[in-house]
Design brief:
The complex is a heterodimer of chains A (151) and B (500).
Chain A lengths: L5 H22 L13 H21 L12 H21 L1 H13 L7 H22 L14
Chain B lengths: L1 H13 L2 H19 L5 H8 L8 H26 L8 H12 L3 H35 L3 H18 L4 H15 L2 E2 L6 E2 L13 H19 L18 H23 L5 H15 L12 H16 L1 H7 L5 H12 L7 H5 L1 H22 L3 H7 L4 H20 L2 H19 L5 H23 L6 H4 L1 H18 L1 H13 L1
Antiparallel strand pairs in B: 1-2
The chains are: A mainly alpha (151), B mainly alpha (500).
Chain lengths: 151, 500
């Protein structure tokens, strides 16, 4: 186990990296002067501040007691993040009736505890419920069948 | 006094059938998610923002507000019955409330929580009605420099609430501010950080950020330690507190209401801080502090009064200044901006029906909550048996379809996934997401006012300190920051969060 605080070191590094990225972006914009600030002025100041804070957090992590980051639920992580992406990628082509169950299948599989029967019940129940609430109840213009399925 | 005629207008708005219905839906949902651990008001409101597109501004704020203060009621039920705070603001209630339940006094504990909350809610509503208009009048005199300083103060104060290191919370604010700047520059029209995506030129979708960071990332955090929840539910019998109980709680409820009302108004305050502060105060004032933690009824009454008062008075900075005191208020700003209403001092004069209707609805909502919570307690208790693995697919589905329904653009969903991931990584690294969202909302406003102030002052940055109001706000912000960084206080602050 490393002798420094990994959590803070990583957090500081993330902040510093994002700060640098925003700084690089700000430098391509017109900075202007304090009197007449250009579009890049405020982002430059903020990204500098973020970089500075990131570096300080990293530096201080060297003297902090070690702390573990803890386990990551990889299966859940991938599947939960996949749900909105799958829906987004298929909703225009397949429509709500297909895209929604696909997304719910992904989300429901995120937990090992969900058995097959529960999953099927969840998918069916939630799909019907969402379509009733969003399409009929709230009248949102979401096509039930997408263009790939219309002949 | 036009307070009465204003309240009359408010009640006539709040009593319109559609508003009553959505107020009920709001407090019902609020109680529901308050009872269920693992889903909080922030995620719920983020999830339901898309629904508000179909509603009038007053109706949507009435519903969203109902969710927020309803969650404070529901949270206490879970805290008392299974020693698991349904909401972080009721964490303190669990200490003595659960002990009371173990001693067979679950009924009086629940009734105390509900009645204290109702009393505090009534007082806070009145306070909101009397304080908001004069404050709004003061705010009308604010120039860009004052607004800038006020927002800086608000952001600094939000650190007080964030768990973990102060530096990391500061960095989260700055990151949020930067993310808020993505999009077309308001003065020159230059594209900033859009990478050629048309979808980004109006900025990153606020709902996508909120749903990603609070909805999706929260599911991921909960999936980490999925344990079987086997709630041991105590039998609830004999709801009413005894006469002695009532006498014991009068003073704590009054103190809790006062403290909560004040802390709620402060930027960065709100329900959680109020409850903690009220509990410590009662313990300090009590003639027998050793009873605390062993089922002292004061330990339930004071924090419950405080968290409800705080939840309600935190609407004051929102409705008068347009400054969000906490992430829930940031979402309210989002909901109003969707309707092209810029929250701020003008709301009271230009949208009186909205302004007073929301205030009046809070009292009505509180009344509904007492009726919902006390007789229906058995129903809420049964909800606790729903396992989390059945809940989160529903949350994920609502998040997804809700965000998509705003613009009908898949891009927003990819943003949800991206912010879900970013939010989860940052949570894993010990950074609270709340300051990020506040920064995100305030980023564009902060920049606009900074640039305006600098143009007016001809590039003289001292203007923020030399104008008396702005200077006072800046001075406060510096004081808060200095206090936070003092070793003694920062240690104490960490202790408070450890106890939680």
């Amino acid at each position: 186990m490393p002798a420094f605080n990994v959590k803070d070191m990583a957090a500081g590094a993330v902040f510093a990296a994002i700060g640098l990225a925003f700084m690089a972006g700000a430098l391509t914009l017109d900075i202007g002067t304090a009197l007449k600030m250009g579009p890049g002025y405020f982002p430059l100041v903020l990204s500098g501040l973020l970089l500075l804070l990131g570096v300080i957090v990293m530096a201080k992590s060297l003297n902090m007691p070690a702390e573990v980051i803890g386990s990551v639920p990889w299966r859940g992580l991938v599947l939960i993040l996949a749900a909105p992406v799958i829906f987004g990628a298929t909703v225009r082509g397949l429509g709500l009736v297909v895209a929604l169950p696909l997304a719910i299948v992904a989300a429901a599989s995120a937990s090992r505890r969900t058995g097959f029967v529960t999953a099927v019940a969840l998918v069916a129940g939630l799909t019907v419920f969402c379509i009733l609430v969003f399409s009929y109840g709230l009248g949102l213009p979401l096509p039930l069948l997408g263009r790939w399925l219309r002949f | 006094m036009d307070l009465l005629s204003n309240l009359a207008l408010g009640f006539s708005t709040a009593l319109e059938p559609v508003n009553l219905l959505y107020c009920f839906i709001g407090v019902f949902l609020g109680t529901l998610i308050g009872v269920l651990p693992g889903i909080g008001p922030t995620a719920t409101i983020a999830m339901l923002l898309p629904i508000t597109y179909a509603l009038s501004p007053a109706t949507s704020i009435i519903m969203l507000a109902g969710i927020y203060y309803g969650a404070q009621y529901g949270g206490s039920t879970t805290a008392i019955l299974i020693n698991l705070p349904g909401e972080s603001s009721s964490a303190v209630t669990a200490i003595d409330g659960y002990r009371m339940a173990q001693q067979g006094r679950a009924g009086p504990a629940l009734a105390t929580a509900a009645l204290s909350s109702f009393f505090a809610g009534t007082v806070a509503t009145l306070l909101l009605a009397t304080l908001a208009p004069p404050l709004a009048r003061v705010a009308l005199k604010f120039g860009p420099a004052e607004y800038f300083s006020l927002m800086v103060l608000g952001l600094v104060c939000s650190i007080v609430l964030a768990h973990g290191s102060i530096l990391k919370a500061l960095a989260m604010i700055v990151l949020g501010l930067l993310l808020g700047l993505v999009g077309r520059d308001i003065y020159t029209g230059d594209e900033r950080y859009t990478f050629g995506f048309l979808e980004l030129s109006d900025g990153i979708n606020f709902v996508a950020v909120a749903v990603g960071v609070f909805g999706i990332a929260e599911i991921l955090r909960n999936l980490e330690n999925e344990t079987d929840r086997a709630p041991v539910i105590k039998k609830v019998s004999g709801l009413m507190p005894t006469r002695a109980d009532l006498r014991a709680i009068i003073a704590p409820v009054l103190r809790g209401t006062g403290l909560g009302s004040i802390l709620g108004i402060l930027p960065g305050g709100g329900a959680v801080l109020s409850a903690f502060a009220a509990y410590s105060l009662e313990k300090k004032l009590s003639r027998s502090p050793e009873r605390f933690g062993k089922g002292a009824i004061e330990g339930v009454a004071a924090p419950e009064a405080a968290n409800n008062a705080g939840a309600q008075t935190s609407f004051i900075p929102l409705l008068t200044l347009g400054i969000p005191a906490n992430p829930v208020m940031a979402l309210m700003i989002g909901a109003l901006m969707i309707k092209n209403i810029i929250p701020g001092p003008d709301v009271a004069t230009e949208q009186p029906a909205l302004f007073w209707g929301v205030i009046a609805s809070m009292w009505i909502g509180n009344l509904m909550l007492v009726l919902l919570n006390l007789p229906l307690i058995g129903l809420w208790v049964r909800l606790l048996t729903i396992p989390y693995y059945m809940l989160f697919p529903a949350i994920a589905a609502f998040c997804t379809i809700g965000v998509y329904s705003i613009n009908g653009n898949p891009f927003d969903l990819y943003a949800v996934a991206a912010f879900g991931l970013l939010g989860y990584v940052l949570i894993k690294l010990g950074c609270e997401p709340a300051p990020l969202l506040l920064g995100f909302v305030l980023g564009p406003l902060l920049e606009e006012n900074l640039r305006r102030a600098m143009i007016i002052s001809r590039g003289d940055a001292t203007v923020f300190f030399t104008r008396p109001l702005s200077g006072a706000l800046m001075f406060l912000a510096v004081c808060v920051l200095a206090l936070l960084l003092l070793p003694g206080i920062s240690r104490k602050r960490e202790q408070v969060f450890q106890d939680e």
